[in-house]
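Quick one: sequence plus pyridoxal-5'-phosphate SMILES, need structure tokens.
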Amino acid sequence: MADTVEAPFLPFAKPSISQAAIDEVAECLRSGWITTGPRTKKFEGMLCDYLSAPSAQACASGTAGLLMALLSLDLEPGDEVITTAMTFVATLNTIVLAGGKPVVVDVEPGTYNIDPALVEAAITPKTRAIMPVHFAGLPVDLDKLYALAQKHNLRVIEDAAHAIGTEYKGKRIGSFGDTQVFSFHPNKNMTTGEGGCVTTQDKSMQKRINLLRFHGIDREAWNRFAKEGTPQYDITLAGYKFNMMDMQAALGLHQLPALDGFITTRTRFVERYYEKLSSWEALVLPQAPDYECRHAWHLFAPCINPEVAGMDRDQLMSALKEHGIGTGLHYQAPHLSTYYHEQWGMQPGDCPHAERISDTVLSLPLFPDMTEADQDRVITALAKVLKIG
Ligand SMILES: *Cc1c(COP(=O)(O)O)cnc(C)c1O
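Reply:
Sure thing.
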């Protein structure tokens, strides 16, 4: 309609990049050292401090981090890794790429997190590791998972892509347990453009990741060319090119100190969503767990109740789009995709809760730089489309 003034499109996520971060990237570019170097080292140190982790190894992406952590387990053909049916496909793909067999189990319907009882039922003599995902920044029940891991002698690789800043029973994800992998993709709670990091209590995994991350060369590039470095090196395995650039770390140096503020703002918006939407029968909102935690609120992802709403999720998403409101889909259950069906025999009915979520979930706009007026636009559009009030 030509006579209406259109409000700008509201995306479901947007990174908050400060002027200081932009200046830091420019300084990095001018410094003559763009790839892995002093800024990456400094960023890793800050991550260790923030996470209370023994090590934090920055890398090219969360996916690269997951792959390196899994490769460090030396999986043999047929070895199984149990993971969740409600995740991004990278979680499953990296298991396959590391030579393992992905075994997906269903989630708890209220939290979308892997159901520990189903994990136990899925353990076989071939199981080597459990790979939970802290969905949307809500920690899985780690006491239960680590008890299972200990009982059955399994490794735990936490896909913590959503969980930087998450706390479980007063402890920060990354400060305890086995291994965690974080993502700094632009949609995540903090970003380095692309990027990720691995934290692990396992010293031999730290060494292995150092090699895997950079061609199998046992030293950082900057050390090789620094005054005190020597140009000779040895190769002890065929590694990848998964290092983080200083240009990326330059962003991280300013994102990490802002993270707690981002999470506070996200939490405030989520509280407002609960306040306004809880009584709507057309929507089913995510539930809190029965243990103490700090939710990082990477996503706010309710499900539509199609019977009450009189429409399905896809129709709701396109109607919101017509109102200038962006939404996200986290996630289409990966076990229903062609590859996992054809190559691994996964099929509809394997994980009913995840499949229902996959069909009905949508992520509403949630990012630190949005305003209450933006959020009110989301709620007004939702009410209009769902014919509420
Ligand atoms: C984003 C994400 C990843 C991958 O992280 P990238 O940094 O994009 O490679 C893996 N697992 C989950 C659950 C994610 O959300």
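The chain has two domains: 19-257, 259-386. The pocket of pyridoxal-5'-phosphate is lined by residues 61-63, 87-88, 90-91, 133, 159, 161-162, 183, 185, 196 (CB under 6 Å).
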